[in-house]
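**User:**
Everyone, produce one record:

**Assistant:**
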Amino acid sequence: MKAIINVSLKEGVLDPQGKAAHHALGSLGFDNVTDVRIGKQIVVTLDAADRAQAEKELDDMAQTLLANTVIEDYTIEIVG
């Protein structure tokens, strides 16, 4: 089973990398961009008995290691 975990900074948490990308895009003429936030995407392939077990394990992975839940949010999408 394959899943995608998207991790992003919570609203209100400063994102200096996103701010730099936003500035660079403006410098390149992309003036209609109002905000940029940078995150990460983690693709996990696992051998789970069923979808419910996979969702539980993926959530545990995100909570334990893959996301810093103090400053980051995450979503999980099972894709195959």
